[in-house]
Design brief:
The chain has about 180 residues and is mainly α. The protein contains six helices and no strands.
Length: about 180
C-alpha cells in the first residue's frame, strides 16, 4: 500500500471512529440526563450506546495503526501512548494521543465495572468528556477533512449536541 492509500484509509477510519464515539457519548449522556428522563428506559437508545461503544474501538485502532507505516505521517508506535512527541503538529497529534489514552482508561474500567466501586467507575467514565474535547480539537487541528463543509457540519453538530447535553446534565442533574 502506498502512503496516499494509507493516508486515505486512516482519514476514513478516523472520521468514522469520531462519529461512532460521538454517538456513543451522546446516547450514554441521553440515558442518564434528568431533562431527558423519558430516554432512560428507551431500548433503542440503550442499544445505540451498546453498539457504538465497541464500534469506535476497532475504527480508532485502524486509524492510528495505519498512520505508523505512513512515511508522510511519521507517527512512531510510542506516539500512540506518549503525547506531544511528534516532529510536526505536536499539539494536534498530541491531543489525539491524549484522547486515546483517556479512552483506553474509560474502556478498560468499563470492562472492569463490576469490580470497581460505583463512584470510582463514574468518575473514571466521566473522562469521556475531556477525551471527546481532545479528540474534537485533534480533528479540527489535524483533520484535513474538517475543512470540507459536510464533514465540518457533522463534526461541529455532534460537538454542539454533546455540549448541550453536558450543560443539561450540569443544570438539571443526572438520573440515579
Amino acid at each position: 500500500m502506498d502512503d496516499f492509500t494509507l493516508w486515505l484509509a486512516a482519514r476514513a477510519f478516523g472520521l468514522t471512529s469520531f462519529v461512532a464515539l460521538s454517538l456513543s457519548l451522546l446516547s450514554g449522556m441521553a440515558l442518564r440526563t434528568a431533562v431527558l428522563d423519558f430516554l432512560a428506559t428507551n431500548r433503542a437508545m440503550r442499544q445505540l450506546h451498546d453498539f457504538t461503544t465497541p464500534l469506535w474501538l476497532p475504527l480508532g485502532a485502524a486509524h492510528v495503526l495505519l498512520l505508523i507505516p505512513d512515511k508522510t505521517a511519521r507517527i512512531a508506535p510510542s506516539d500512540l501512548v506518549v503525547p506531544f512527541q511528534t516532529p510536526y503538529g505536536q499539539l494536534a497529534i498530541g491531543l489525539g494521543t491524549v484522547s486515546l489514552d483517556l479512552l483506553i482508561v474509560v474502556v478498560v474500567t468499563s470492562w472492569a465495572r463490576s469490580r470497581l466501586p460505583n463512584a470510582l467507575w463514574q468518575w473514571l467514565h466521566r473522562l469521556s468528556y475531556p477525551a471527546f474535547a481532545a479528540i474534537f480539537a485533534h480533528s479540527v487541528l489535524s483533520g484535513t477533512d474538517f475543512g470540507t463543509p459536510l464533514v465540518s457540519a457533522v463534526g461541529w453538530s455532534l460537538a454542539a449536541a454533546i455540549a448541550v447535553l453536558a450543560f443539561a446534565r450540569l443544570r438539571w442533574g443526572r438520573l440515579s
